[in-house]
Amino acid sequence: MINIEVQNNSVERISNLLDNIPGGAYRAMGNAIGRGLTTVRSETIKQIREVYDIKQKDLINATHIKTQKPTGGDASDIIGYISFSGYKIPLDKFKVSSTKKGIKASQKKGGTMTSFANAFMANLSGNKFVAERVGSSRFPIKGLYGSSTAQMAGNAVVYDEVEKAAQETIDKRVEHEITRLLNGYGR
């Protein structure tokens, strides 16, 4: 889970600035954290695509994103959540090449291709996928899969970039929300 928060010294400053506006500090921080969650959502997809060799359409189709907007009783405990889940993505959605010796695949951009000697491109009912035979007979076969979106979002490079972008958004939005409320908008 990505940790984005309004710093403690900022909470005190916001509370002091918006003291005369009922619920002002709560609204300012809640709106800023809500925008931070939106940034996490979009930036995670962007950063996954920077690291992994997958099309955006395939990534989004295999992803379930659950967002809970900021909640809490007062300005000191405003919390918002975002979680990524989904199934493992079929290997053919990543970089795959077919050779005489089997299939070679790579999940990461610029990564080394891993060989699957017994794998082949299957075509069942118009659905193409990378498969491997389970036994020595022709059937059954099993599909080969790569990482899930949650696993890719947990990559250290992706995680750090997303956290940095989200924190920048929160910091900017807090200042914007303070100005907005002090000028009489959103009361």
Outline of this structure?
The chain has 187 residues and is an alpha+beta fold. The protein is 41% helix and 24% strand. It is elongated.
Walk me through the structure.
The protein has 187 residues and is α+β, with helices and mostly antiparallel strands. 41% of the residues lie in helices and 24% in strands. The protein has five helices and eight strands, in the order αααββββββββαα. The chain has helices spanning 8-17, 24-51, 56-61, 149-153, 156-182; strands at 64-71, 79-85, 95-99, 102-106, 114-116, 119-124, 127-133, 141-143. The strands form three sheets. A three-stranded antiparallel beta sheet has the order 3-4-5, with no helix packed on it. A three-stranded antiparallel beta sheet has the order 6-7-8, with no helix packed on it. Strand 4 and strand 5 form a beta hairpin. Helix 1 runs antiparallel to helix 2 (24-51). It is elongated, with a radius of gyration of 23 Å. The mean pLDDT is 90.
Secondary structure layout:
Layout: H1 8-17, H2 24-51, H3 56-61, E1 64-71, E2 79-85, E3 95-99, E4 102-106, E5 114-116, E6 119-124, E7 127-133, E8 141-143, H4 149-153, H5 156-182
Helix pairs in contact: 1-2, 2-5
Features:
24% strand, 187 residues, alpha+beta, three-stranded antiparallel beta sheet
